[in-house]
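Subject: complex prediction, re-run

Hi both,

The earlier run crashed halfway through, so I resubmitted it with identical inputs.
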Amino acid sequence: MQSSDNKKNSGDSRRDFLKKSSLITAVALTPAVAMKAAESQADERFAALFEKIPLNITVNNKAYKASIEPRVSLLDYLREELHLTGTKKGCDHGQCGACTVHVDGARVNSCLSLAVMNEGKKITTIEGLAKGEELHPMQQAFIKHDGFQCGYCTSGQIMSAVACVREGHANSRAEISEYMSGNICRCGAYPNIVDAIVEVKEGGANV
Amino acid sequence: MINFQYLRTTTAKSALTLLQKDKNAKFLGGGTNLIDLMKRGVTAPEKLIDINHVPLKQIELVGSKIHIGAMATNTAVAEHPLIQEKLPLLSWALNAGASAQLRNVATVGGNMMQRTRCGYFYDTEMPCNKREAGSGCGAIDGFNRMHAIFGTSDKCIAVHPSDMCIALVALDAEVVLATPKGERKILFKDFHRLAGDTPQLDNNLKADEMIVRVEVPLNNFAKNAYYLKVRDRASYAFALVSVAAGLELQGNKIVNVRLAMGGVAHKPWRLTSAEDFLKGKEATTENFEQAAKLSMTGAKGFGENDFKLTLAPNTIIEALNLAKSKA
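This time it finished cleanly. Structure:
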């Protein structure tokens, strides 16, 4: 029985075999598959199983070139590869907002974005908010209003708060609460966070 | 997360071709649901086809319909002046869902394709006929507070999680699909399915098809509409019950009405019997109560979600009253 199975496998095409094979075999066979894809007319970028994908990305105004597995989240790329650990991993499932960064100016949960989806994008993290030693007005307001306790959610809160003001969704305390609801604070600093955002909004500072 | 092949494409045609080549491939839009499911091991596609660069982000008036591309983000739709003016119900429903961060990347097509949030579906140690056909349903005799009261089967009592889709079904939207034989159109109300004996199927999209856009006919509900979502938190929570209500009034007379409910069934639940009852009647609380009562025909609780049998009609009445008082 076993020998006939082996025989059957040996008759499979290289492509079929690749699909069934282990990681090591897949890597070994990558060039053949890549060539096959290159033959097709589709305007696709191709990557074989387990192959790393080229990534060009700008983080806090600095351009990076990387080669990365497609399964790596933007969050893990920022923290583990670039060592920008200001962006926090809270739930890792898009429920808490601790990982909030700006992608081309829009706030997103970096835990639910694959790094490779961000090819050519400009990312801003909490590390990119201050101008040298001068804190961003939102950072200053969070300190002034005691907008945190343990601090774990804070970088996500601040990134989200800056976006909230920029989007024009900080016109009332109620609106701020609604548009900040994607950022959970287990210490319960919410009233102070809203105070900080109100001050930045009313102060009219360029955020 | 189990690794996968990653492909990127910039045209709908090549996206479809790539999909047809491989049954184990999935489209990747915003990824806010799919990536989460992959992290949890609920699904493990061999290939992801990133369609974020496919130019299907249009939001435009074409004749008497508003076309919304499948790749338009929830934020782009909710904040578009055309949507806010002509289809405010859709805008409110979108903004009632998820968080600002998620709406910034989540797409219209992805929203339609999102899976249920039933805890048994997400927990791979638990039985779930939707995740693994034939493994059983943990929810029917288990923790079912969030679950369905309409159209359930003995295989699955999960609910459809979207807010956007509740508004779209109320607004008589249509879905345009790209297929190997060209485009086909189906009514939004026929896009999602009841669980029946095949709870693994959420909708009627075939394996080799792609959502291209949604078309919403212009209507006269903009003035008197409301999306009322009842949930455990004031924001950023899935619905216990939600109601999309649209009234077209002449004086206090209901010329036309649309009602749909979320959080109660495996698909967006249109309340046609209530609509039929209300048409031509006065917009009074008594008539709203009667309509709500009619809507509950066939409702069935499973223990922990019995409260929905009361919450649902109350939400219908409240949504209608709020829609009426908008003017």
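Chain B has a mean pLDDT of 97.

- K.
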